[in-house]
Amino acid sequence: MTLERLRDGRLREPERIVSFVLGMCRLVVLEIRRGSWRREKLLATWGDAAEAVEDSAVLGLDADKLAACLEALAERERTVVVMTFFAEKSGDEVASELGLTAGNVRVIRHRAIARLRGCMGGGAS
Amino acid sequence: MTGARCAEPIEFEALVAYWVGELPSAAEAPIEEHLFGCAHCTRRVEELAALAHGIRAVVRRGAVQAVITPPFLEFMKQQGMRIREYRLAPGERVACTIRTDDDAVVSRMQVALAGVKRVDALHSLDLGDGHQRQWRVEDLPFDPSTGEVLALPSAQELRKLPAHIFRVRLVATDESGERTLGEYTFAHTPG
After folding, report:
1. What is the DSSP track for A71-107?
2. Which end of chain A is least crowded, N or C, by CB within 10 Å?
């Protein structure tokens, strides 16, 4: 959308294009991170040494602490969080698999993520 | 672009909705526009990315136990995870294990769930040393239409245990009390 506006000369603050490009670069990096599943699988199969290094920290997160924080969640919260982030399912998809309403799932998800971030030492809005 | 705090930060829940792709494109566009120019909110997306990455990693390493769904189990298989499954009818006992090449073990407890509002699980772990550990897990997530409850134990924890007997009693609870839906026995030997 921003690109379309730029092409049409309708961008309100064209000087912000530098920020736009930098932001886009960040999002591309995020997409790469999201697509890192294949790399994780290869590491799991072949990279014992690398795995040992990654065990203690996952992108800056303490994996043991994260597992403990997940364990501290209520059963429903843990299921919703795992379905959301492991399988990247939307609230609607999670709801249909658990026989809940999408609104209910979003409430559970919101509470669970807040507890998880708090447990991990983050959580500031 | 500075790291200064954003005057109107995007709600974290909105970022989660954006992350899992549940927003209509009309709602995505303003979020993306904001992120393009806001280092503060972009960092929060990065926090979200780290959380998602971490959760994927700990689940795949078997560090997390959870109640899951049949489609989720299929997703795990599609991702190449090697899953050992045990399907039990109420009252059944199964000899089970986890081998070194298993990524996870899933127990599929068959149970009639029609009309059930809430399911709790009463767990009993007998290590054969004269001590039995019992605990209750409340309010399991379930879809009544599937007729089963799927439990994914932590593979890491399971591998630490010696031979043992693990019993699960699923109970339906409501205002009138509780009734047993089924009992399931897992006779585990190390792989």
Report:
1. HTS-HHHHHHHHHHHHS---HHHHHHHHT--HHHHHH
2. C
Q: Print burial letters for B60-90: b (CB count within 10 Å at least 16), e (below 16).
A: bbbbbbbbbbebbbebbeebebeebebebee
Q: How do residues B180-191 score in pLDDT, each as one tens digit?
A: 999 999 999 998
Strand, helix or coil at B177? Answer: strand
Give the separation between CA B167 and CA B153, rounded to whole angstroms.
Answer: 13
Instruction: Say what the pLDDT of residue A8 is.
Output: 54
- Quote the CA–CA distance of B133 and B91 in Å, as a whole number: 20
CATH topology of domain A72-120: Arc Repressor Mutant, subunit A (1.10.10)
Q: Determine, for residues A66 and B58 on separate chains, whether the beta-carbon distance falls below 8 Å.
A: yes
Residue B33 neighbours by CB under 8 Å, 6+ apart? A1, A2
Contact with chain B for residue A111, Cβ under 8 A = no
Rounded to 5 degrees, what are φ and ψ at A69? -65, -40
Instruction: State whether residue B26 is helix, strand or coil.
Output: helix
Question: Mean pLDDT over residues A49-58, rounded?
Answer: 43
The interface pTM score, or ipTM, of the predicted complex is 0.93
Q: Could you give all domains of chain B from N- to C-terminal order, each with its CATH number?
A: 12-59 (no CATH), 62-188 (2.60.40)
